[in-house]
Sequence to fold (365 residues):
Amino acid sequence: MIRTAISQLMGLRPSGGLLTQVRDKGHLSRPRLRNPQWFLRKEVTNRGDLVTAENKHFINDLVHEGFGAPALIKGVQTYEQNLVKTKDLSTPPQTWTPQIRRCGVIARKIGQYPLWLKNGERIRTTLLQVVDNHVIKYIPPEEYVAQKLPGRLEPAANNKRGCIIVGSESTNPVLLTKEYSGIFRDSGVVPKKNLARFFVSPEAALVPGTPLNANHFRVGDFVDVRGKTVDHGFQGVVKRHGFKGMPASHGVTKTHRRAGNIGGGGEKGRVWPGTKMPGHMGNRWRVIRGLRIWRINSKYNVMWVQGSAVAGPTNGLVYIYDTILPLRKNQEAPPFPTSYEDSSDDVWYDKVHNFKDESIIYEKE
Fold:
């Protein structure tokens, strides 16, 4: 049952190309119209209002015994997991190579902010916060069976990449079904609101329960960000495709924002596929590739990435992973397989002007 639930997760899949922005086609980018049956319950009739104070104390003791005492970690209310120490969570040491694919993280888009380079140039950045990420499960290549999508061949028998399930933002298990909570049974962490899968090399495997934060990446590296665009609903051609429209007066009658002619007559009297017409706008998965990380604040797990074209609304979920562009891949070894240090540093790229530093320096005469 757990494997069936995991196979239905909308996750990341490797793809190639040199384009900065990649668009998924057709059914691959359309979101699910309804949640699976193992997701949140529709109605919760009893949340423990009739539980006595003694039983509540007993339940809290059981929760603390399994997940640790309540704690505020990285600005998120969660629990101190009773796991092995961080240094013992690491897998046997492996040698990093440029061909190895690491795990990614789940983040929230919290806004946009400008930065200035040391030469005075102003750049636009998007702030992404990595919130309460933990590894839920690792599936080796020989055990993982990729979800068969229409128009795709069956996965090869010699699959060289495994799958890591990552969860973010702990939630109350009372609000979840038993089947969904069963996914987290062997991970040692509280059930999460959001799940995503990342295809990784076997050398980059992570132990379930390993925390992931912004230190998983380095300042100056390039990443790919995948998110769902803002849902605008059904829109006309002026807003959806940027048509100019007709004049406001001078003989125009009720065709100010209409599309106009959509096809010719004669032998080919039909509408050609791909014609720009009114329809649903937004709510599609988009990937923007090759974004440089300009700044990382480890205290709040916030990353400043290049540009303001990251898909999704404010507080929307995005998936971040190492870029696949050949000319922007990591040339030096990143934190491999992840960073196990819990620091509170604020690291800036060397070309970015840090406003905390002195801008004018006087030399002694």
